[in-house]
Amino acid sequence: MGMIGIYTAISRDESQQLADGQLLPDDMELYERENQLDIDKAWQALGYVLTGKLGGGEGPISYAVPMHGERLLDYGDYGAFYLLPEQVAEASAALAQVTKDDFQERFALNNPVKEQVYPVMDDEDEDEFLSYIYDYFTQLTAYYRQAAENRQGILFYIA
């Protein structure tokens, strides 16, 4: 099956309670929520293309795949990561600035195929892989925009 990246838009209160340690992802019935985005296995390669780093990065663009240690919560095998509504708004603005040409340039600079970033396979075709992660990038950009407009936080986890 593989490791699938899931985004869940959450309320301001939920995101603050997660940040304060008053709420745990296990208490949120995440699998029953409807407003989620599944980006399949593209999460690590997408984060790498955007930031040039595996798991993290600098600035609001790194919130696109928010795998920062300070926002790590105990959940499942890989943990969960939360963003407050203000961070979602910052990420949304940063993602909106990345055009298709910009994304392709970032892909060429931070090439996940050459670096064998998950989920790249040995015989991966670069053009097909670029198309695969760019499709999820556009979905992610729209998801963040909607969450920012609704002043929501985001919880990201790997299932």
Question: Would you mind describing this structure in some detail?
Answer:
- This protein is of the alpha+beta class and 159 residues long.
- The protein has helices at residues 12-20, 43-51, 85-96, 100-109, 126-149; strands at residues 5-10, 36-38, 72-73, 80-83, 153-158.
- The chain has one domain (5-158): 3-Layer(aba) Sandwich (Hypothetical protein yfbM fold).
- The chain has 5 helices and 5 strands, in the order βαβαββαααβ.
- It has a 5-stranded antiparallel sheet with strand order 2-1-5-4-3, sandwiched between helices.
Question: Which terms would index this structure?
Answer:
Hypothetical protein yfbM fold; 159 residues; 5-stranded antiparallel β-sheet; single chain; alpha+beta
Task: Please render the helix and strand layout as text.
Elements: E1 5-10, H1 12-20, E2 36-38, H2 43-51, E3 72-73, E4 80-83, H3 85-96, H4 100-109, H5 126-149, E5 153-158
Antiparallel strand pairs: 1-2, 1-5, 3-4, 4-5
